From TrEMBL:
AFP-like domain segment(s): 294-351
UniProt source species: Desulfobacca acetoxidans (strain ATCC 700848 / DSM 11109 / ASRB2)
The protein, known as: Pseudaminic acid synthase
Pfam families attached to this UniProt entry: NeuB, SAF
A molecular function (GO) term: N-acylneuraminate-9-phosphate synthase activity
Keywords recorded for this protein, A-Z: Transferase
Lineage, uppermost ranks: Bacteria, Pseudomonadati, Thermodesulfobacteriota, Desulfobaccia, Desulfobaccales
C-alpha cells in the first residue's frame, strides 16, 4: 500500500502538509445558512476540507420507544432516544450538492461519512473525492466493502477498535479494491479525556498497516492535534462550530473559528519545526559560529617564549584555533611578539 494518498490532487502523507478537516456534523442546527457560514468560516480558519455526515434517522436506527434505543448514562446525550437524536443531527441530503458547490468556490474539499449503501450511492452521484468511515461503523465490513468498490480514498477512524478489528477493516477494504487508505487514531468519547487518547499509537498504526495515519480528535482544545502532528499524524479532523454557546449535539466538543485557526497555525509551525534529520549548522546557525569558544593569547608573549597556560585561554569569540588543540599549543614557542587578544593560529607557533 502507498505511504500517501491523494484527495482532489492533494497528496496526504509523511513529508506533506497536514490535511486539516473541519467536521460539520450537527453544528448547522438544521439551518442551511448556518451550514454555508460554517464552510466560509472553516476556510478562513485554515481548513483544507469540510466533512459532512450522510444519513437519515431511518438509516441509522429504528424509531422505537424500547430501552435498547435509549442512550444510557455516561455521555452528553444520556437519556436521548437514538432516532430523535439523529433526526436533530442529520444533514439534509438536499443540502449536499449546494454545500458542495459553495465548498468548491471556496477552494475547500468536501466529502462525507456514509452510514449505509444508499448514502454511498447518493454520494457517488455527487462525485465526492473521498469517503470517511466513522469509528462506530468500522465493524460494518459490508459498508466498508461498498465504499472500497468506489475506488475512492477511504479515511477510517479507529475509535474503540481492537488491533484485530482494525485489521479486519483494512483487509476488507483492500480486498474490495481500496488502494488509498488513511487510518485515524480516535478516542470515541465526547469529549475525550487527554489521558485516554494514547497518541503514541499513531506511529504504531502507521508501521502496522503501512498507511498514512492521522487523528480524529474529540478532546477539548488544540494540544492533542498539535502533539499528534509531532508524532507523525498527516491528517487532523476536528469538529467545527460557529459558536459553542448555541446548544447542539456536538457543540460542547467542537472548536470555534478562532480556535481552529490557532490550531492550524500551530500545526503549520510544528510542520516546519519537524523538518528532517539534520546535524551541523543550519544557515541561520552559521552566523553563530563566531561566538563559539576558541584559543586566544591572554597575556603578551615575546618571540621565542614558550606558551603556557598563563598565555592561552579558551574564550569567546571563535576566531582562534578550536579548544581541542590546547595541548598542542602549550609548550610551543612564539614565532614573534604577540599581544594579548590575538587569536591563536598555527602560524604563530614555532617548535
Amino acid at each position: 500500500m502507498p505511504s500517501s494518498i491523494k484527495i482532489n490532487g492533494r497528496t496526504i502523507g509523511q513529508g506533506q502538509p497536514v490535511y486539516l478537516v473541519a467536521e460539520m456534523s450537527a453544528n448547522h442546527h438544521q439551518d442551511f445558512e448556518q451550514a454555508a457560514a460554517i464552510l466560509q468560516a472553516a476556510r478562513e480558519a485554515g481548513a483544507d476540507a469540510v466533512k459532512l455526515q450522510t444519513y437519515t434517522p431511518e438509516t441509522m436506527t429504528l424509531n422505537l420507544p424500547r430501552a435498547d434505543f435509549q442512550i444510557g448514562p455516561g455521555t452528553i446525550w444520556a437519556g436521548r432516544n437514538l432516532h430523535d437524536l439523529y433526526a436533530e443531527a442529520c444533514t439534509p441530503w438536499e443540502w449536499h450538492p449546494k454545500l458542495q458547490k459553495i465548498a468548491g468556490n471556496l477552494g475547500l474539499d468536501l466529502f462525507s461519512s456514509p452510514f449505509d449503501a444508499s448514502a454511498v450511492d447518493f454520494l457517488e452521484e455527487l462525485k465526492v473525492p473521498a469517503y470517511k468511515i466513522a469509528s462506530f461503523e468500522l465493524v460494518d465490513l459490508p459498508l466498508i466493502r461498498r465504499v472500497a468498490k468506489t475506488g475512492k480514498p477511504i479515511v477510517m477512524s479507529t475509535g474503540m477498535a481492537t488491533l484485530g478489528e482494525i485489521e479486519e477493516a483494512v483487509v476488507a477494504a483492500r480486498q474490495a479494491g481500496a488502494e488509498q487508505i488513511v487510518l485515524l487514531k480516535c478516542t470515541s468519547a465526547y469529549p475525550a479525556a487527554p489521558e485516554e487518547m494514547n497518541l503514541r499509537t499513531i506511529p504504531h498504526l502507521a508501521a502496522a498497516f503501512g498507511v498514512p495515519v492521522g487523528l480524529s480528535d474529540h478532546s477539548l482544545g488544540i494540544a492533542a492535534p498539535v502533539a499528534a502532528v509531532a508524532l507523525g499524524a498527516c491528517l487532523i479532523e476536528k469538529h467545527f462550530t460557529l459558536s459553542r454557546s448555541v446548544p447542539g449535539p456536538d457543540s460542547a466538543f467542537s472548536l470555534e473559528p478562532e480556535e481552529f485557526r490557532a490550531m492550524a497555525q500551530a500545526v503549520r509551525t510544528v510542520e516546519k519545526a519537524l523538518g528532517r534529520v539534520s546535524y551541523g549548522a543550519s544557515p541561520l546557525e552559521a552566523q553563530s559560529r563566531a561566538f563559539r569558544r576558541s584559543l586566544f593569547v591572554a597575556r603578551d608573549i615575546k618571540a621565542g617564549e614558550v606558551f603556557t597556560a598563563a598565555h592561552v585561554r579558551s574564550i569567546r569569540p571563535g576566531h582562534g584555533l578550536a579548544p581541542k588543540y590546547l595541548e598542542q599549543v602549550l609548550g610551543r614557542r612564539a614565532v614573534r611578539d604577540i599581544p594579548a587578544g590575538t587569536p591563536v593560529s598555527w602560524e604563530l607557533l614555532g617548535n
